[in-house]
Amino acid sequence: MLNSVSEGSSAPAAPPVRRRLSAPDRRRQLVGIGLAKIVETPIQDLSMDDIAGEAGISRGLLFHYFPTKTDFYLACISAAGRRILRNTAPDEALSGPEQVEQATRLMVEQIERRRDFYLALVHGHGVADPRVSEVMDSVREGSTDRVVQALGTEERQRAVVRAWWAYTEDRALTWSAVPTGERPVSLSQLVAECVAALHALLSIRV
């Protein structure tokens, strides 16, 4: 029969299910899709048609929420920055030094777990827009605030704490690039070394 499907043949793929979402929910949905793609895809290769298709909306509607591809990319990495700060927040019931140690461990673990994602966030996939670096700056500033508040550090030493976070980030990226069984130090030892470096820097008086 002409209208029947022969046995063994595959039916055509169903189109994406369109769901009516509020504007904030739609933006969150699109950013979530983008976050999953920007780790491995430079922005210049990012297909807005694919993102719209996965969300079940038109390309035009996507650009209603994000006027340009760069705006969309910035929304994605801004969400990533906020997620990093949430994931690395220490328990405020701990003592100041314990909060610093916990925040350091959480940051190292975050970088180890999502190393490629973190590198994409740091390097911005070559996007020539100052707002990209501002996102990473906000993560470092938020992390710096936590240490300054936890230890009651003098404001004049804030720059030292911020530089220390950059050092810790670099140590974590270098350490996590090595296969697990070949790393020269354990996670606990790396955290201890980073925390010791912070206290050594803060003890310097000039």
Q: Summary?
A:
This protein has 206 residues and is an all-alpha fold. It has helices spanning 23-38, 48-55, 59-65, 69-87, 96-113, 115-123, 130-151, 158-176, 187-203.
Any overview of this molecule?
This protein has 206 residues and is mainly α. The protein has two domains: 23-75, Homeodomain-like (Arc Repressor Mutant, subunit A, Orthogonal Bundle); 91-203, no CATH class. Helices cover 66% and strands 0% of the residues. It has nine helices and no strands. It has helices spanning 23-38, 48-55, 59-65, 69-87, 96-113, 115-123, 130-151, 158-176, 187-203. Helix 7 (130-151) packs across helix 8. The radius of gyration is 22 Å and the shape is elongated. The N and C termini lie far apart (91 Å). The relative contact order is 0.10. Residues 1-13 have low confidence and may be disordered. InterPro entries: Homeodomain-like_sf, HTH-type_TetR-like_transc_reg, HTH_TetR. Residues 1-21 are annotated as: Disordered. Residues 24-84 form the HTH tetR-type domain. Keywords: DNA-binding. Pfam families: TetR_N.
Number of helices: 9
Distance between the termini: 91 Å
Structural class: mainly alpha
Helix share, percent: 55-70%
Uncertain spans: 1-13
Biggest beta sheet attributes: none
Mean pLDDT over the full residue set: 86
